[in-house]
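PROTEIN DESIGN WORKSHEET
SECTION A - STRUCTURE
LENGTH: 232
TOKENS:
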């Protein structure tokens, strides 16, 4: 593959759908949360809510529930039910890496780049995923919306905080942002990242990525090391 981005020094990767195979876990956990809130599967309200969840994949989950349920109390109740359900699914062994994801991360780290893993989940869920995969010590930094004052994607905060905390690049144009949703892409665009890639292993596809401003679309995060090439 032709090397087009050899100057990238910091790589900010999404988790579920990008480096972690989702397998429908988000929607299953949402169904449990909706049930806890009295929204029955098969109802028009449930279908409307699910459509919103799918459209906003990548966004902070508490923000999604604020939109769906209105009050802060109900949003937090729904979010707690979602996090508990997702945690149970992960604990039951249903979390798995996207094929080649760990190898790609190790290749990037081995080439001298800094890698950060980010998510729209709460810290407790992110940690459960990291533990289930044995990734707790894989990268130097992991971030969730609570780590940046609560603003997750599509805001640029997670990307910019990755740069500030790691000092892994001298310029935002040396940052790559990779994710499976339009919100991942938009967060990278808003942060001024030099490479913003959508991957076809999760929630959204080429049309959504391009509309959000992606500079690249990849089949998988496994293709990223070859795209970046070796450091000069």
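SECTION B - SEQUENCE
RESIDUE ASSIGNMENT:
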């Amino acid at each position: 593959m032709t090397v087009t981005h050899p100057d990238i020094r910091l790589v900010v990767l999404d988790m579920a759908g990008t480096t972690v195979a989702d397998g429908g876990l988000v929607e299953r956990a949402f169904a449990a949360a909706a049930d806890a809130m009295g929204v029955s599967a098969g109802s028009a309200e449930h279908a409307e809510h699910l459509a919103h969840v799918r459209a906003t994949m990548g966004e902070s989950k508490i923000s999604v529930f604020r939109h769906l349920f209105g009050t802060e109390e109900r949003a937090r109740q729904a979010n707690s039910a979602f996090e508990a359900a997702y945690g149970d699914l992960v604990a039951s062994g249903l979390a798995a890496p996207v094929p080649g994801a760990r190898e790609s991360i190790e290749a990037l780290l081995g080439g001298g780049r800094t890698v950060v893993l980010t998510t729209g989940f709460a810290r407790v869920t992110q940690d459960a995923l990291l533990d289930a995969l044995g990734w707790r010590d894989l990268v130097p930094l992991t971030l969730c919306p609570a780590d940046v004052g609560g603003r997750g994607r599509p805001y640029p905060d997670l990307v910019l905080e990755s740069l500030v905390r790691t000092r892994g690049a001298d310029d935002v144009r040396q940052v790559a942002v990779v994710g499976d949703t339009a919100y991942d892409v938009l967060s990278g665009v808003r942060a001024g990242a030099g490479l913003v890639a959508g991957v076809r292993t999760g929630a959204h596809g080429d049309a959504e990525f391009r509309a959000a401003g992606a500079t690249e679309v990849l089949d998988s995060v496994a293709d990223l090391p070859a795209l970046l090439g070796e450091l000069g």
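SECTION C - NOTES
Residues 25-94 form one domain.
The longest strand covers residues 10-14.
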